[in-house]
Design goal:
By secondary structure, the chain is of the alpha/beta class. It folds into 2 domains: 168 residues, D-Maltodextrin-Binding Protein, domain 2 (3-Layer(aba) Sandwich); 129 residues, D-Maltodextrin-Binding Protein, domain 2 (3-Layer(aba) Sandwich). 46% of the residues lie in helices and 15% in strands. The chain has 15 helices and 11 strands. A 6-stranded mixed sheet has the order 2-1-3-10-4-11, sandwiched between helices. Helix 3 runs antiparallel to helix 13 and helix 11 crosses helix 15. The longest helix is centred in the N-terminal third of the chain and has 29 residues. The N and C termini lie far apart (108 Å).
């Protein structure tokens, strides 16, 4: 009888221990999953990716490339829709983002990279503070170039001093206007500006039709949008600015002068090279959503599918992250009053 009782007690003790373990696990199993307020906000939402220039150019292509991929990395997986908002070569868009766009993370702007320098120079029409924007990132810095159509027989800066060259641009304040104007002011080139084009693609058509003979464009954009022109020597790059392109044989504009004041002016007017094709959120977006969107951008530019598509489009991927861009914008805005006044005279 004692053996039977002993077996019963041992079984009872095991049962009690098992129930105790189950009981200790039950509260953890029943605990609710922690809420994610960012995911909850973006779930089912649409984010507008607004592009400040016309379709078909580098800004447009890169904005749409990012929009196709970044949604996978945003909590809640919202839908992203790219659309163009043109006017005053990007000024309309950035003023809209500063004053009207929703400040909840559902509007992202592909900003014209010269906008902080316009603010630093005190240009009319600036109704924004670039330092208050939440900069997300850019896929790479850029190299600005001045390209001249082959029919001019101009292949150097010296050649551009020797004859008038009709040069296409979008509007005053855009890099398509400011770079040629800077060259005229400092180095005596004779680039006659014609404005009013809606974007780089329109200026390219004008070059093919013989309406204009030159334009500013980035080296990456030439390689992405007009590789046939490069192969057929339809254009000559006479000068470049930004990080020197290893595959481009043209002088840096900063190397054309030894005057420190002129170099500071060049640094301000062409400061957009360090910002690439920048994406930004309006001021006032909640910090947790800004952090989530910056993290999503950082993951996107590492994504194998994104990198492969960028390569197929002939775009380099050498990203600059949002926090670093924020610091770059702050430095641009710290320009001295003397340089700002000179830049304003140049850009007006």
């Amino acid at each position: 009888m004692s053996a039977v009782m002993d077996r019963f007690c041992r079984r009872h003790a095991c049962l009690v221990a098992a129930l105790a373990v189950v009981g200790s696990l039950a509260p953890a199993a029943a605990a609710p999953v922690a809420a994610d307020p960012v995911a909850d906000f973006f779930r089912g939402k649409t984010i507008s990716v607004l592009i400040g220039v016309g379709a078909g150019g580098e800004y447009d292509l890169i904005a749409r490339l990012v929009a196709r991929h970044i949604g996978r990395y945003i909590p809640g997986h919202p839908v992203l829709v790219a659309q163009n908002m043109t006017g005053a070569s990007g000024l309309k868009l950035i003023n809209y983002l500063a004053a009207i766009a929703p400040r909840d993370g559902t509007a992202i702007g592909m900003i014209q990279n010269g906008m902080p320098s316009l603010q630093a120079a005190g240009m009319d029409g600036v109704q924004f503070d670039a330092a208050k924007f939440n900069w997300l990132g850019t896929i790479a810095p850029i190299v600005e170039t001045l390209a001249v159509w082959h029919s001019t027989d101009v292949t150097t800066v010296e050649g551009a001093r020797g004859r008038e060259i009709v040069t296409g641009a979008t509007a005053r304040g855009s890099i398509t206007y400011t770079f040629p104007t800077l060259m005229n002011e400092l180095f005596g080139t004779r680039l006659k500006l014609v404005t009013g084009y809606n974007g780089g693609a329109e200026i390219n058509l004008a070059m093919e039709r013989g309406e204009v003979e030159a334009r500013d464009n980035t080296w990456s954009s030439w390689k992405a949008t007009k590789p046939g022109w490069l192969a057929a020597h339809k254009i000559s790059i006479i000068v470049q600015s930004g990080p020197r392109a290893a595959d481009l044989d043209a002088p840096l504009v900063s190397d054309l002068t030894r005057d420190p004041d002129e170099r500071r002016l060049i640094d301000l007017v062409l400061s957009g090279c360090a910002l690439g094709r920048p994406l930004a959120l309006p001021p006032g977006v909640p910090a947790d959503r800004v952090a989530a969107l910056r993290a999503a951008f950082d993951e996107t530019v590492k994504d194998a599918d994104f990198v492969a598509e960028a390569k197929a489009l002939n775009f380099d991927v050498d990203p600059i992250h949002g926090v670093d861009m924020q610091n770059t914008v702050a430095r641009i805005l710290e320009v001295s009053p003397d340089v700002a006044r000179r830049a304003k005279r140049l850009l007006e």
